[in-house]
Amino acid sequence: MGLAKTELFTDAQNEIAFFAKAFAHPARVAILQHLFKINTCVCGDLVNEIGLAQATISQHLRELKQLGLIKGDVEGTSVCYCINKSKWIEMKKLIAGFLDQDISVPTNCC
Amino acid sequence: MGLAKTELFTDAQNEIAFFAKAFAHPARVAILQHLFKINTCVCGDLVNEIGLAQATISQHLRELKQLGLIKGDVEGTSVCYCINKSKWIEMKKLIAGFLDQDISVPTNCC
DNA sequence: TTACTTAATCGTAATATTGCAATGTAACGA
DNA sequence: TCGTTACATTGCAATATTACGATTAAGTAA
């Protein structure tokens, strides 16, 4: 149905999946990496940098913004997009906790 | 078009996005967590544990298998699914590297 | 063999995602 | 005001994802 049955899962599981979607597309990975590198950014840069159409970039930016991972401040004609560091760190902790679950488990199978 | 333009991005960017899809759905998050907890598993357990239909679980397992994150060994009538630890660690390093890019960047904006 | 169990696969429906052209909007400069 | 620039939004097409019933395949048990 294309619709995840979120009610079957814990809040933490849904949240991990939710954040994972942020970087489950190479364009968003590239956008986030570029924002970290530049540390101050406008969308125009990104269109040149990434090579997708302006409308497409804008759409990816909106998704990242909805997740809270980036902030966009209007500055005259352009918009300054930046990483929302506090949210990034929150997300990082959540994902890292998920990825590190292997360290506590003894190898017992396969 | 529903089709990511992978040719625009680096191998690393595509790979991060690719692995991120593994846990971009709460059912797969739950499956991976359960496999870590049980450390030896058959699909029947997962159907009871998660609450999705058998066909759906099987489909998620196949995706995880295609990514190399789990292994499935046939044992008579059932199949023993396990985490592929070496692949998991490889994935963890890649994602962690992406998530840790904030530590090297001075706060300079917003 | 027959019946049963387990899980993969097929087929299909509903919904989501990706991408872009076209258009809208808001700020700026002349 | 008019034109330009910088993005956002809309509308649409193509493809992907999620979910499940039905079926199939392969083992086990009688």
Please provide a written account of the structure:
Two copies of one chain form a homodimer. Chain A is 55% helix and 13% strand. The first copy, chain A, has five helices and three strands. In chain A, helix 1 (11-22) crosses helix 5 (85-99). Chain A is an alpha+beta fold and 110 residues long. In chain A, a hairpin with a 2-residue loop joins strand 2 and strand 3 (78-83). Chain A starts with 10 loop residues before the first helix and ends in an 11-residue tail after the last helix. Chain A has helices spanning 11-22, 26-38, 43-50, 54-66, 85-99; strands at residues 41-42, 70-75, 78-83. The longest helix of chain A has 15 residues, at 85-99. The first copy, chain A, has a three-stranded antiparallel sheet. Chains A and B meet through helix 1, helix 2, strand 3 and helix 5 of A and helix 1, helix 2, strand 3 and helix 5 of B. Chain B binds a DNA duplex (30 and 30 nucleotides) through residues 1-5, 25, 27, 42-44, 47, 52-62, 74, 76-79.
Entry keywords:
homodimer, 110 residues, alpha+beta, three-stranded antiparallel sheet, 5 helices, 13% strand, DNA-binding
Question: In short, what is this structure?
Answer:
The structure is a homodimer of 110-residue chains. By secondary structure, chain A is an alpha+beta fold.
Strand residue percentage of chain A = 5-15%
Oligomer: homodimer
Tally of contiguous helical segments of chain A: 5
Helix content of chain A: 55-70%
